[in-house]
From TrEMBL:
Superkingdom in the source lineage: Bacteria
Record protein name field: Nuclear transport factor 2 family protein
Record lineage: Bacteria, Pseudomonadati, Pseudomonadota, Gammaproteobacteria, Enterobacterales
Cross-referenced InterPro entries: NTF2-like_dom_sf
Length: 132
């Protein structure tokens, strides 16, 4: 299997486990010293903290994955995943179309860096923009 296909598969499997949510399985795709940074520069040490953060922010949330893009950087592969989030806020309001972009670095078959961006903070602050 080519490196790029393998890296995309690792990210795809990680996202499937994360959305289950199964942080134990999701963690198997991450290096022990993974660096995870969410929107707002929130640094998280592991997949369990991602699940806890999402549980506090949303009643539930899933990703509608748009596409994966990848590039070989020599000693690692960078994978981008983009698409939209859908789910429900803690107050029961449903949402969809919330854009996201995730960037992953894959080294030796594990995610070593993960950066996450999405529209959630803006939608929480100004809910009417989510209706546009």
């Amino acid at each position: 299997m080519k490196q790029e296909n393998s890296a995309v598969e690792i990210v795809s499997n990680f996202l499937a486990a994360s959305m289950a949510p199964d942080p134990v399985k999701a963690a198997t795709y991450m290096a022990a010293d993974v660096v995870i940074t969410f929107t707002g520069k929130r640094v998280m040490p592991d997949a369990h903290h991602i699940t806890a953060f999402n549980k506090a922010r949303y009643a539930w949330v899933k990703k509608s994955i748009g596409q994966y893009d990848w590039m070989d950087k020599g000693d690692h592969t960078v994978v981008y995943s983009n698409g939209t989030l859908y789910g429900e806020w803690p107050d029961g309001r449903k949402f969809a179309g919330n854009r996201y972009l995730d960037r992953y670095e894959i080294r030796d078959g594990k995610i070593t860096h993960m950066d996450v961006w999405n529209d959630s903070a803006e939608w929480i602050l100004v809910p009417e923009i989510s209706q546009r």
